[in-house]
Amino acid sequence: MSVFYKVIPRKTPGDPEGEVKYYATQKMTGTATLNEVCDYIAPRAGRSAGSVKTIIEDCATAIAETLASGRTVTLDGFASFKVTFNSKGAETPEAFSKSAIERVNVRMRPKKNLKNAAEQGVKLVSIGSIAAKTTGTGTEEDGVEDELGM
User: Fold this and answer.
1) Rounded distance between C-alpha atoms, residue 71 and residue 52, angstroms
2) What are the CB-based long-range contacts (under 8 Å, 24+) for 78-84?
3) Contact present, 73 and 88 (Cβ < 8 Å)
4) Minimum mean pLDDT among 67-76, 81-90, 131-140: which range?
5) Global pTM value
6) Do 103 and 85 meet the contact criterion of CB atoms below 8 Å apart?
7) pLDDT at residue 6, rounded to an integer
8) What is the tens place of the pLDDT at every residue in 31-49?
9) Which of 86, 95, 134, 139 gets the highest tally of CB atoms within 10 A of its CB?
10) Please, are residues 25 and 5 in contact by the beta-carbon 8 Å criterion?
11) Residue 68 · residue 82 · CB < 8 Å
């Protein structure tokens, strides 16, 4: 399993005149849809893809309703979910009002074993190295598609 990256220049945020440094950024090669995930799970679970889809949709609804009730959701071995806020600051607690809350967010934090499983067997591949293998006037994206057999 390969994860692709490219190297990009960035300046330090807040310092437009600052020194440029180079950082890796991931280059995703596509998106797995809900139906594709269901097709993957179905034969392993002995279920139809339709019933797996219903279960996943019900799980998402249960998570949303639990978060809306003010509780954190922890799915052992998978992730925890919680609600967070972005708000404007106030000079005193008395001066704060809920109108200062600008946005409500849902944060997902993967559990350690999910993070570890995602990292195991991952091969990091530079898009630049793939692009160098291509001939002609191919772009970096063409090189990724060639590497993936697309």
Assistant:
1) 26
2) 78/110, 78/111, 78/114, 79/108, 79/109, 79/110, 79/111, 79/114, 80/108, 80/109, 80/111, 81/106, 81/107, 81/108, 81/109, 82/106, 82/107, 82/109, 83/107
3) no
4) 131-140
5) 0.69
6) yes
7) 92
8) 999 999 999 999 999 999 9
9) 134
10) yes
11) no
Q: CA-to-CA distance for 92 and 104, rounded, in angstroms?
A: 22
Task: Name the β-bridge partners of 123.
Answer: 2
Positive or negative, the CA dihedral 6, 12, 14, 18 is negative
d(CA 136, CA 150): 17
- What is d(CA 144, CA 5) in angstroms, rounded to the nearest whole number? 10
| Structural tokens at position 40 | 């993957």
What's the CA gap between 110 and 80, in Å, rounded?
6
- Give CA 108 to chain center in angstroms: 9
What is the Cα–Cα distance from 85 to 98, expressed in whole angstroms? 11
Sheet of 20-27: strand order equals 20-27, 2-11, 123-126
Task: State phi, psi for 54 to the nearest 5 degrees.
Answer: -60, -40
